[in-house]
Amino acid sequence: MIAVELRKLFRRPRTWVTIALLNALPVLVAALLALTDLAPRPGEGPVFLSAVLTNGTLYPLAALAIVLPLFLPIAVALIAGDSVAGEAQAGTLRYLLARPAGRTRLLVAKLVSILVFVLVTVAVVAVVGYLVGRLLFDVQPLGGTSVSGTSLSSTEIAWRTVLAIGYVAVSMLGVAAFALFFSTLTDSPLAAMLGALGILVASSLLFTLDAASSFAPYLPTRYWLAFVDLFREPILWRDVVRGLALQGVYVVVLLGAAWANFTTKDISS
Amino acid sequence: MVGGAVAALAALPSVVAALPASDAGTSAAGLRQQALDSADVAFSGYAQAAGGLALPVGEQLTDVADLLSDRTTMRAWYRAADDWRVDVLTPTGETDVHADAVGSWTWDYVHATATRTAPTPLALPTASDLLPSALGRRLLSEAGEDELSRLGAERVAGRDALGLRVVPAEDAASVARVDVWVDADSGVPLRVQVVADGAAEPALDTGFLSLELGTPAASVTAFEVPPGADVREGQDAQLLQAASRAGRETRSRLPGVLAGLDRRTIDGAPRSVGVYGRGITLLAVSPLPGRVAGPLLDALVVAPGAVVDDLGVRIASGPLGLMLVDGPDGPVLLAGTVSLDALAAAATELTGGDS
User: Fold this and answer.
1) Is residue B217 domain-shared with residue B262, that is, in the same domain?
2) Which of A190, B62, B169, B259 has its C-alpha lying 20 to 30 A from B98's C-alpha?
3) Which string of b and e fits B1-35 if b means at least 16 CB within 10 Å?
């Protein structure tokens, strides 16, 4: 069943159009930077973007930072929100469940395909970013400078980038869990996607508010930017670990709720 | 089942916070001594400071104003009094101060600059001054025994911390009290709260969120200018020179006592700059160059709560008082942890008024 779901996901043109559109913005930004040589002033614009003109190997990170606030969550929420509600809307959910496979197995298969989609999307953004960075910008063979001003070798930059990609992927799993949960609540994929995005917008807004500081550590977007901490020296694990744990709790609780809801739901369409 | 698990998770922070801290029978004076003796205790830590002071200082001194009004997140490594590093973290960068025996390096990632600062007798506050250990020791260093009292115990950064309260004795003081929470094991101040006169919430609250005793590696506190960085000279010395130049025409010497506070002797400070007071109650007096005084005056007179009269303009933000006086020899800045009345009294004494 997992293989069936994966094939279905990656055979759909929509999946690849989403991934392509997601990569368009970082590529456009890179082309503009390379053509005009005008990097954003340090401290403005997405993280690491001001550093890429002198070191193109940092572009995968800049590309992730460009899509992280909005485009990446939209893409993930789109696919995850569609997973169950899309079948219900198309009227195919009944037929899927008519097979003796059972609802839990269907949900697990949907979950695995979303997981693979998140990993593929983040990896594609990073790989495209790497290629664009190597092609359009100068590359420092000796490595670069950490946020703390120490020197990092190329190998160190490489493995820290891999960690950062993994961290962003885990952050996106939280988005996917929200969208999947809403997807089991409604028959409209659009409502599921917008529900997940609404949570993220509210979370980002509350995070900037001092009056909400008492529960700020529990907001789902609270630790999204913590991948920057991987480029401090020594690495500041505090927020990274908290971010992983927080996403873990959201994923477990929301998937539990999605499962409880889906296995007891009346399927009418 | 899911609901129960969520409730248990949500209750966990309050359960942990309610764990009782164990108190010890240390006296107030003994605890103060323990804190002062902790200057050679090595540690690494993560701290947060929250300031509620809005300083209307315009374009100048924005770094200082940000420091006192924002939430500042710090990482610190402390090997000795002349070998430490404090990083101020922002979501997309950091500003690090590396101190060594003959000065300090400041690394600013966002601007890719490394600034070398030589020690000066007087300096503007920086984020490293907000680290609870440094601030606590500084505020306790001159506290008299009659100003001290013991509070109970609290848990700070997961450690047992003993409370110590300082209530300044000076009439001019604008600080109602300072609460310092001292680590029961090592004597390192873990949390400092400064409460202004008449305020319920602290004007400044800085504390460690985690602290690990033990000497950090020398490579962590050392600094090497990264390739491609812009190297600059610190501004503290220039500021002092500017103050010194601005005060060159000053015919009158600064008095020995101002608003009931005694003048402090600071070796190497320009003659025209004076610091008065003791402990938590301090008042700095400095002539200002006209190009600095003009914009500052514009920012001060329109600030809410500013008092403008014949003496000049004065304003209070929490316990911090700021006054720009039109002195006989040019503009003079008065700043410190004194009340508005004390500022007015000091201005009257400086300008030779009779009220």
Assistant:
1) no
2) B62
3) ebeeeeeeeeeeeeeeeeeebebeebebeebbebb
pLDDT, tens digit (0-9, with 9 covering 90-100), for B160-214: 999 999 999 988 899 999 999 999 999 999 999 999 988 888 989 999 999 999 9
Choosing from B178, B211, B232, the residue where a domain stops is B232
The closest alpha carbon to B174, from B55, B53, B273, B317, belongs to: B317
Mean per-residue pLDDT, A146-164: 88
Given an 8 Å threshold on Cβ–Cβ distance, is B210 in contact with A145? no
Residue B13, in any domain of the structure: no
The answer to whether residue B7 sits within a structural domain is no
Is the same domain home to B205 and B239? no
* Residues in Cβ contact with B132 at an 8 Å cutoff, skipping those fewer than 6 apart: B47, B49, B189, B190, B191, B192, B206, B207, B208
Question: Which residues of chain A make contact with B113, given a CB cutoff of 8 A?
Answer: none
One domain, residues B240 and B226? no
Residues on chain B touching A147 (C-beta within 8 angstroms): 93-94, 109
Flag whether residue B214 sits within 8 Å of chain A, measured between CB atoms. no
Interface size, chain A vs chain B, as Cβ–Cβ contacts under 8 Å: 60
Q: Which of A232-246, B121-135, B303-317 has the highest mean pLDDT?
A: A232-246
Contacts of A257 in chain B (CB under 8 A): 2
Q: Can you state the angle between helices A71-90 and A154-185, rounded to 10 degrees? A: 30
Name the minimum distance, in Å, from the CA of B229 to any CA of chain A: 9
Asked whether residue B181 falls in the same domain as residue B263, the answer is no
pLDDT at B181: 96
Q: Which residue range is the domain that position B223 belongs to?
A: 23-232
pLDDT digits (tens, 9 = 90+) for B3-24: 777 778 777 777 777 777 778 8
Q: Which residue of A has its CA nearest to B88?
A: A148
Distance of alpha carbon B279 from alpha carbon B242, whole angstroms: 27
CA distance A252 to A178: 11
Q: Which of B46, B71, B87 sits opposite A148 (nearest CB)?
A: B87
| Residue B14, domain member (yes or no) | no
Please say which residue of B232, B253, B268 terminates a domain.
B232
Best probe of the B interface among A148, A150, A230, A238, by most B CBs < 10 A, is A148
Sign of CA dihedral B215, B217, B218, B224: negative
Residue position matching structure tokens 């004194």: B338
Measured between CB atoms, does B228 come within 8 Å of chain A?
A: yes
Q: Is residue B136 part of a domain?
A: yes
In chain B, what percentage of residues exceed pLDDT 90? 37
Where helices occur in chain B by DSSP H, the ranges are 2-17, 28-36, 62-69, 132-141, 218-221, 236-246, 290-301, 340-351
Q: How many domains does chain B have?
A: 2
pLDDT value for A154: 84
The CATH number of the domain holding residue B118 is 2.50.20.10
CATH code, domain carrying B260: 3.40.1000
| Contact flag A43-B110 (C-beta cutoff 8 Å) | yes
Which token pair is B148? 């001290």
Please report which confidence band the pLDDT of residue B32 belongs to, taking 50, 70 and 90 as the band edges: very high
Same domain, B195 and B117: yes
